[in-house]
TrEMBL record:
Domain OmpR/PhoB-type residues, every copy: 130-227
Molecular-function annotations in GO: phosphorelay response regulator activity; transcription cis-regulatory region binding
GO BP field: regulation of DNA-templated transcription
SUPFAM superfamilies hit by this protein: C-terminal effector domain of the bipartite response regulators (SSF46894), CheY-like (SSF52172)
Post-translational modification 4-aspartylphosphate, affected residues: D53
DNA-binding region: 130-227
Organism annotation: Chryseosolibacter histidini
Domain Response regulatory: 4-118
PANTHER family: PHOSPHATE REGULON TRANSCRIPTIONAL REGULATORY PROTEIN PHOB, REGULATOR OF RPOS
UniProtKB keywords: DNA-binding, Phosphoprotein, Two-component regulatory system
Name of the molecule in the record: Response regulator transcription factor
Gene3D superfamilies in alphabetical order: 3.40.50.2300, 6.10.250.690, Winged helix-like DNA-binding domain superfamily/Winged helix DNA-binding domain
Organism domain of life: Bacteria
Annotated Pfam families: Response_reg, Trans_reg_C
């Protein structure tokens, strides 16, 4: 299924360039030039993300973001704007934004931010945010960040929780290292890759009481979580 993105940008040239770039990356993109048209477009279709400018001819993007967030608490919102003052950034996040990017910007940096935010939001939209998982003799509750076996309950860190959740969603399949890094850190580089390796090592120790549970390292590719039980 193709992800749909709504862009609300009053600069026609900038809006068209961004629309064409994202379309070339496989997204379905709708461009609106003001708040009225943007809200009308949002109400008329289901979007996976909204990219808003702060300064629009019929008001500011903050009010539009609040209206969108009021109608849909899950859809990700990114502000893409020339307004770089700290007060504007604070207003952006207070109005419900997931990220705030100032112009000028690198298009591929924006692309990877979009990919990261969409991955995180997809976990929530599909209901897996609150779903529990059985891993061998363990019970994993992402909502409460707990991993339990028998009467033993361990509360894991937020980052460990998100990594384990991604592994569970692809149990018995390869979860690419790059996917995890972009989803949780927003970018993939050597140092964040080393940090991920440390978290994986900690998770392996947590499963020490059940030898059937394994987190296999697929060299230069990613990881496979397995427990001898075929999922699906």
């Amino acid at each position: 299924m193709v992800d749909k993105i709504l862009i609300v940008e009053d600069d026609a040239n900038a809006g068209l360039l961004l629309q064409n770039f994202l379309a070339s990356e496989g997204y379905e993109v709708k461009l609106a030039v003001n708040i009225k048209a943007g809200l009308q477009a949002f109400l008329g279709d289901a979007y996976n993300m909204c990219i808003l400018d702060c300064s629009l001819p019929d008001g500011d993007g903050f009010s539009l973001a609040k209206e969108i967030r009021h109608r849909n608490e899950h859809v990700p919102i990114i502000f893409l704007t020339a307004r770089s003052l700290l007060d504007d950034k604070i207003r952006g996040f207070q109005s419900g934004a997931d990220d705030y990017i100032t112009k000028p910007f690198e298009t591929f940096e924006l692309l990877y931010k979009i990919k990261a935010i969409l991955r995180r939001s997809q976990v929530q939209i599909t209901g897996t945010k609150d779903s529990c998982f059985n891993i061998g003799g363990y019970h994993f509750d992402p909502k409460n960040q707990t991993l339990s076996i028998g009467n033993s309950v361990k509360r894991i860190t937020a980052k460990e929780n998100e990594i384990l959740k991604l592994l569970c969603l692809k149990k018995n399949q390869i979860t690419k290292k790059e996917e995890i890094l972009i989803a949780l850190w927003g970018e993939s580089d050597y140092f964040k890759g080393r940090s991920l390796d440390v978290f994986i090592a900690k998770l392996r120790k947590y499963f020490a009481n059940d030898s059937s549970v394994k987190i296999e390292n697929v060299h230069s590719v990613g990881f496979i979580l397995s427990d001898g039980v075929i999922s699906g």
